[in-house]
Amino acid sequence: MSAELAFNRNIDVDYGVPEEVAPCVRRIVANNPGPYTFLGTNSYLVGTGRVAVVDPGPEDKAHLEAIAKAVKGERLTHILITHSHRDHCDGARALQAMLGGEIASFGPTASQRGAVAPGLSYAFVDPAFVPDRTLTDGDTVRIGTLTLDVLHMPGHAPDHLCFALVGKRTVFTGDHVMGWNTTVIAPPEGNMADFLASLERLMLRHDKTFLPGHGGRVQTPQRVVKAYIMHRKWREQTILACLEDGIGTIPQIVERLYGSIDAGLKDAAALSVLAHLEHLAARELVAASTGSVSLRSVFVSRTS
Fold first, then answer.
1. Predicted TM-score of the model (pTM)
2. Close Cβ partners of 113 (under 8 Å, ≥ 6 residues apart)
């Protein structure tokens, strides 16, 4: 198993300009680049005449005006939200005020939201986000002559949805699967067991194209999903190896596994390790000194 995944980061972006990326689908990229958003959030315009927007992105005036310009003369019927992280959903109400359309998403969850680490606060989630219409797994959304199947794919976020364009073998994957990087799993917002189960569901499909929330198209979906799963299994084994060597705290594991990572990403790395340890503890493969798994726990392997 390899530690490295083959990512495509060679992408040109012309902010605010719609680009056709699949039949009946245009993409406009928001100008909000960063370590977790890559070149910016992708907003997708689905359909012609009657149009849906998948992820309006941040509440950025220039970006929302670019969407409005692109759909001029058409009717915006739906604003679909993959998950309630602010870089995906903050522009929803402002766009609705401009163009109308029904806001639809999974809606509020009963689970704790956000991520408990200094560099990843609760601020990246909008826990108060409430759509006009709640969606769940198996629902459908009709956009003119097009139909989107709703897939509930928790893991990165408990409310994460993907939208499959029926008959086109195309899925809007949000942050569940991306081609430019691995997906951040940051407890309590993220859950490794849910994430892996959601990936296994995608492996059963026969899609041709993934259109992610950040970065370019994924044109070998099953290969990428399989690589995601293998990467997580490999990471799990490296964490168990650390414990076997007596490296039992999350800061120590991060230093061993991510020693050369940028300092600004170490909090995310710590939370990823925590997510793996939660998953291992649930399967009774590791134990935490405090009984409950936390960033401050000392861990031991139970596999030997």
1. 0.94
2. 122, 125, 127, 158, 188, 189
